[in-house]
Amino acid sequence: MTDTSSTVDPRLIEILVCPVSRTRLEYDESAQELISKAAGVAYPVRDGVPVMLIEEARKL
């Protein structure tokens, strides 16, 4: 059985954009982050749910 609690649905990644730059995001599965190169931040993914708040983002 595969643990899907920490993975993000690929369809969701395709439609999500950075709330700051409005650009596409890259999913870093090993770090559990969605990365916005344009904004220079990484949004955490917690229990498979992207946390798209700039206050929660890590600066790159």
Estimate the global geometry from the Cα principal axes.
globular
Structure classification: mainly beta
Query: Which series of helices and strands comes N to C?
Result: HEEEEE
What is the level-2 CATH architecture name? Single Sheet
Q: Please identify the oligomeric state.
A: single chain
Rg (C-alpha, Å) = 11 Å
Q: What is the CATH class?
A: Mainly Beta
Number of domains: 1
Query: What about the largest sheet?
Result: 5 strands, antiparallel
How many β-strand stretches?
Answer: 5
Unreliable stretches (pLDDT < 50, length at least 5) are none
Helix coverage percent: 10-25%
CATH topology: N-terminal domain of TfIIb
Helical segment count: 1
Can you give me a brief rundown of this structure?
This protein has 60 residues and is mainly beta. The chain has one helix at residues 10-15; strands at residues 26-28, 33-36, 41-46, 49-50, 58-59. Strands 1, 2, 3, 4 and 5 form a 5-stranded antiparallel β-sheet that branches.
Could you characterize the architecture of this molecule?
The chain is mostly beta strands and 60 residues long. It contains one helix and five strands. It has one helix at residues 10-15, and strands at 26-28, 33-36, 41-46, 49-50, 58-59. Strands 1, 2, 3, 4 and 5 form a five-stranded antiparallel β-sheet that branches. It is globular, with a radius of gyration of 11 Å.
